[in-house]
Write a structure and sequence with these properties.
The protein has 14 helices and 21 strands. By secondary structure, it is of the alpha/beta class. Helix 1 packs across helix 2, helix 1 crosses helix 4 and helix 13 crosses helix 14.
Amino acid sequence: MPAIPTLKISISGVRGVVGDSLTPDLLTRFSQAFGTYIGSGRVVVGRDTRTSGEMVRQAVVAGLLSTGCRISDAGVCPTPTVQLLVRHLRAHGGIAITASHNPPEWNALKFVGPDALFLSGGRGRELLDIYHQGDYAKARSDAMKEPKTHRRAVEKHIDAIMNSFGPLPVSRRRPVKVVVDCVNGAGSVMSPFLLKKLGCDVVAINATPDGIFPRPPEPLPENLAMLSDAVLKHKADIGFAQDADADRLAIVSELGAPIGEDYTLGVAVDHILSKTAGTVVTTLATSSAVDDIAIARGCRVVKSMIGEINVTETMKSENAVIGGEGNGGVIYPEVNFARDSFVGMAIALHYFAGKKGPVSEVVAALPRYHMAKTATPCPAGKALEVLELLIEKNKNRKIDLTEGIKISDGKKWTLVRPSNTEPIMRIISEAPTADEARRLNEKLVSQVNNFINGND
């Protein structure tokens, strides 16, 4: 397989490897383009804890100041905090400096519009056009203002969550004991404080905001061994894990077992719909468990393309009460129109506090599905042809062409879609049992490989 490029530019932002493709010059030019795009207004800037973060921040500040922007510097803070602050300050936009779940050598710029949502579609393309044309706004020296440090960004975020949910019920015989793994990322500056405000007995691990990640930052089950061990060691009721910029959340039961990222969203959906009925938006790749939970509450589910941008835009058009992605991304517009692990923690704690029995038993009672995932090499020029052949091959079955092709058969489905960043085809299958999901996945992988190799 060809080497994966270390610079990725798209309508949603730019990311790359620091010291290789992500240079100060490129970062400054992208920031100049963004300042030009928003019309030289107020911009919120925040970053995660990566060791390259200060270099990137200074390049971003230089680019924004050169276009006449006024900067509210939130310092080290979670990405959802940047989005919340854009809305609270009525800023013209924001830049979150983070490579999210990517390895520590990566960093990135995520561009936020005045609606506190990431740029997408036409807005993202307009920004890219400005960047490529290189015709940036130029401010006179007397129009350049010192960046203002916003010292209460995290406190505002905590206040918004507490105002919406309040502390946990006090009728319990003891406080809920929580272990939280912040991966030494941006969640380190907020998670312990929020959990204590909620009334929890908190054990924080990997909560030094130095950007030295003690595990891969993506909170997948295979990366949660330290959290699982700490939950068992401290006899905790629940464990939480975040990624580096704290927009995604994974949950571990009192048995030290990850419940699965899709069930982070499932728990949140079940709790919110128990209070407020309404539409739920999830992606095509999210578990049917979320659909079953919503349907049992008498609510409809709308599917979007994969990615936070697509979910939030669909949520706005559908006036959804909650939504998110099956990767642990919970979006609750009442507090923050963004994937927000802190909102996810508050919802989950209130949900489990209202149930009888430990986390493991409550989750076991939810609809149960299993997934199998494969990525197979596919030349970029071949992807469309493969999808067309799959559509023809499965034309008599139930298919959804919102993104790639999703083939459904009762409680089972498979999604085949080309990657946006790598020369591969992603195949995700789900079924009520692990064996069924594996067999379904293997069948579609075989079909895809046959089409790639011209054996149709």
